[in-house]
Amino acid sequence: MNFYYSISKLRQKLLLKNIEILYRRNKINPPNFVVWDSTKRCNLDCIHCGSQENQQKELNTKEIEDVLDQLASFGVRNFQITGGEPLLREDFIEVVNYAAKKGLNTSFASNGYYIDEDKVKSVSKANVSLIQISIDGIKEVHNSIRKNQESFDKAINAIELLKKHSDAKIGVSTVVMPQNIDTLGQLEGTLISLNIDFWNIGTVMPVGKAKDNTSLFLSKEQFSCLMRFIIDSKKAINIEIGENFPYLGKWEKAIRRTPKICPIGIFSCCIGVNGHIRGCPDQPDTDYYREGNIQTETFKEIWEKAFERYRNRDILREDKKCSVCNHKSNCFGGCWVMRENNLQCILSYTE
Ligand code: SF4
Ligand code: SF4
User: What pLDDT shows up at residue 127?
Assistant: First the structure.
């Protein structure tokens, strides 16, 4: 395990070095994947929602199809759709079909509420490769977090239909918080019986409704419990740790087979609801994070000229703690979203 990790770390170093050399020569490769924050609308009202509804005008079908044309011709291969609840867009199936026509490998995240047999057939025809359904606990806990008494059964039904009729990889994403951490073991049993392909486990990010709600964040002890739970469970179920912890400090090698890095500006970016481009969908859609707008410039123009602070790793010089940290070549300053409330540093969960 450690040997495999060490080889992967070496590969990561060489890849980043190569990207840095190309970057200095003004050669920027297209991103591996682009996420589309398709809508802020949602049928649920989760206590930890980071995607607060606002009045932004959504890109219309023609506009997003134009973006897909640009992504395909620029050489982007992977297109991920998130929200809000993407299936609330009336043109959702039309857009995934268009993405398939352009040769893009499409995936999406959903609460599963609107997934019925017809939708499953449509997404199967559009060759969607991966679908992630949110489940935040056993039935009572999930329904209470999502403030909807039908939401758990709908999510389970969606997974069963998808497993039966679709070739896509089907995963579950769970956001762990003090409200559900004690029932993770029970949820694990349910997910194993559903035979899902992967279980993505993350923690609450301090944005949207969760920004100032400290009751949603794990204590140091709870975070350690979560790490131990993952180490114990990963033989029984394929667990991926959520991307808001790109580095796990002392738990890293016991949990991950390969090292991660925040992918913003190197491997990925996000197209916001009304066309603003930012690093990732969990970053607030504010001027600070915006790098350009797809309605005034092309995707290629924005990608090639923006994202400098991520590519230059400015944070490792600007942040006093990161600049002198022994972990900086593994952690790279952690997650930008967690940084919103100074929750990004893995050392604060271990020391
Ligand atoms: S100080 Fe910075 S680089 Fe070091 S572990 Fe914390 S976030 Fe990562
Ligand atoms: S900012 Fe955080 S959540 Fe967003 S891509 Fe980077 S590590 Fe992932």
Answer: 84
